[in-house]
Design a protein that fits this description.
Layout lengths: L2 H4 L17 E2 L2 E4 L2 E4 L4 E12 L2 E11 L3 H15 L5 H4 L2 H16 L2 H12 L3 H29 L3 E3 L2 E9 L2 E5 L7 H12 L3 E5 L12 H7 L5 E3 L4 H10 L5 E5 L2 H8 L9 E5 L4 E5 L5 H13 L9 E7 L3 H14 L1 E2 L7 E3 L7 H14 L3 E2 L7 E2 L2 E2 L2 E4 L16 E7 L2 H10 L2 E2 L1 E5 L3 H11 L5 E4 L15 E2 L2 E2 L4 H7 L1 E9 L2 H12 L13
Parallel strand pairs: 1-5, 8-9, 8-11, 9-10, 11-12, 13-14, 13-23, 14-21, 15-16, 20-21, 23-24
Antiparallel strand pairs: 2-3, 4-5, 6-7, 7-27, 12-26, 17-20, 18-19, 22-25
Helix pairs in contact: 2-9, 4-6, 4-8, 5-6, 6-7, 11-12
Bound molecules: glyceraldehyde-3-phosphate.
Glyceraldehyde-3-phosphate (G3H) binds next to loops.
């Protein structure tokens, strides 16, 4: 084993005191406003972090979470169903201003848990301190922006419109009971980007945390419990097949918000007995390509491609997962790319300046090794120093070249630090890759010739959700629409769009006769209805 990984895992004493964790056995879960105690089996939380103990390197077990069954999951669902009460529950019937005050109370308490959540993000999923802090702060900003967007939506709806002899008021109202499930790579941010809009629009929620990044929700349980009326938010734990499968089978889930694989989404969706009643908001697989054209500014392109493919070790749905580089510059590109990869510092999430960290998914390093071996068997080489070296959960980035269509890594979403580079000569080769892909999230084009870039833009507008020019693929800013085509997504998320996807427009309409106008204006003047009202939130 080379030196680069030999020292990557620390001795316990080398871990700074403020970032150490002690074992947490979580037995509580939230149903109907009560933190219930789970006496049964637990799921062990293994950290991607290993620690040197003498001659051995040992994986750290940092806690355990409840392994609930279908029984508890159904209790959670019933609590959400009761709180919704066919649309007459306290929460869905509440005014927007009141719902906002509950969310703001939650945010205040959430902010107090920043250090605890950030620490667990590092230990549970190996995210660097800087990125963990960014994830927490971005999530708080997202909540603030969501409240702002809802106030604006509410202001725009606080008026009557007149059209073709009718007068009407149109407002957005909740859909019912939502099941929210997030991914392990953004267990806080991506989960909350559906959970918060679902709640604020008046839906009641069953929330099941991701596969990894589960303990980090624990510091927020009290805030959830104290900020919302009973049954509005219910938090369950356990294996997906034992818990959420049972929920879908009841047909009582109205909204399914899921960030994960398209296979997982398909398996769950097909369990619902009334598919027409189920509205889905899905963020799924992606294989975003970068196309590097002959006249690309290599300094800028290499820097965007390195962060695009390797930030958080390539574990972002928006990561650049395959690089098509024009043959005329591919050698120089690889040389510069490797030089930048070499500068990325491997280490533990809390180490200053660290960019490469261990991977949280068990067996992931072996899976990536398999992808690399398959590519090598079909003619690719590892181009960078130390590429593909493994120590337990650590996989040092492997830059593969020349990659072709016979290799698994050409199609499969590696979701990890393997960078496949495909040389290309004709535009058509890159275009056909995007057109024939099962995925359609984003693409990045790097170049300087405006005509050529325009041609690519027009080729891709009906293929993917976002075309990035001289910029890596990414979700942000959160006010931009985030979606995908084909197997990559269903529905569009952004701060404003999320409010729309978790609601439906309902209107009150009447013929504009004098008598009807009189009734409507009396209702409004005397504030007799919550819905039919011209009051708005400042
Ligand atoms: O994993 C998918 C995330 O939505 C990506 O977000 O582009 O801001 O890292 P990001």
């Amino acid at each position: 084993m080379s030196k680069i990984l030999a020292d990557v895992f620390p001795e316990a004493v080398a871990i700074p005191e403020q970032y150490r964790v002690s074992y947490q056995e979580q037995r509580e879960y939230l149903i109907n406003g009560e933190l219930r105690h789970w006496p049964g089996a637990l799921n062990t939380v293994q950290s991607p972090v290993y620690v040197k103990e003498g001659d051995e390197i040992k994986q750290q077990v940092i806690g355990a979470t409840p392994l609930l069954t279908a029984h508890e999951a159904l209790h959670a669902l019933n609590a959400a169903v009761d709180a919704y009460n066919l649309g007459h529950g306290r929460w869905p019937a509440m005014s927007v201003a009141e719902r906002i005050s509950h969310i703001e109370k939650f945010l205040e308490q959430m902010r107090e848990q920043r250090d605890a959540v950030v620490k667990l993000l590092m230990w549970e999923i190996g995210k660097t301190l800087k990125d963990s802090e960014k994830e927490f702060d971005r999530t708080c900003d997202y909540i603030v922006d969501t409240v702002k967007a809802l106030k604006e939506l509410d202001r725009n709806s606080a008026k009557l419109i007149e059209e073709q002899g009718f007068m009407a008021q149109i407002r957005r109202v909740p859909l019912g009971v939502a099941l929210c499930m997030g991914p392990f790579n953004y267990p806080l941010n991506e989960t909350f980007s559906t959970l918060i809009p679902a709640l604020i629009m008046g839906n009641t929620v069953v929330f099941k945390p991701a596969k990894y990044g589960v303990l980090l929700i624990r510091p927020l349980l009290k805030a959830f419990q104290e900020s919302f009326p009973p049954g509005v938010i219910n938090i369950i734990y356990g294996k997906g097949r034992d818990t959420v499968g049972a929920l879908m089978e009841t047909g009582k889930i109205d909204v399914f918000a899921f960030i994960g694989t398209n296979k997982g989404a398909n398996d769950l969706k097909r369990l619902h007995p009334k598919p027409h009643r189920l509205k889905s908001i899905l963020g799924l697989d992606a294989k975003n390509p970068a196309l590097v054209l002959p006249d690309a500014d290599l300094d800028q392109t290499v820097s965007e491609c390195v962060t695009g493919s390797l930030s958080f070790n390539g574990q972002r749905c928006t990561a650049l997962k395959i690089l098509f580089v024009h043959k005329s510059i591919v050698n120089e590109f690889i040389e510069r790319f490797n030089a930048e990869v070499e500068k990325l510092k491997p280490g533990m999430p809390w180490d200053s300046g660290v960019q490469l960290t261990p991977l949280p998914e068990p067996g992931k390093a072996d899976y990536l090794r398999g992808l690399v071996e398959d590519a090598k068997a079909h003619g690719a080489k590892i181009m960078n120093l130390h590429g593909g070296e493994i120590l337990h959960s650590f996989f040092y980035p492997a830059v593969l070249y020349p990659v072709n269509a016979n290799m698994n890594v050409y199609r499969e979403e590696q979701f990890g630090p393997v960078v496949p580079i495909v040389p290309f000569e004709k535009d058509e080769e890159a275009i056909q890759y995007v057109v024939n892909s099962n995925f359609g999230q984003q693409v990045s084009i790097f170049g300087n010739d405006s005509k050529k870039i325009a041609m690519y833009i027009d080729m891709f507008t009906n293929q993917v959700g976002r075309i990035n020019v001289n910029t890596q693929c990414q979700r942000g800013p959160d006010s931009f629409p985030f979606n995908g085509r084909k197997d990559s997504a269903e529905g569009t998320l952004s701060v404003a769009d999320a409010l729309r996807v978790f609601s439906i427009r309902t209107l009150v309409a009447t013929k504009s006769t004098e008598a009807n106008k009189q009734i409507i204006s009396t209702i409004i003047r005397n504030r007799e209805s919550v819905f039919l009202s011209t009051d708005y939130i400042m």
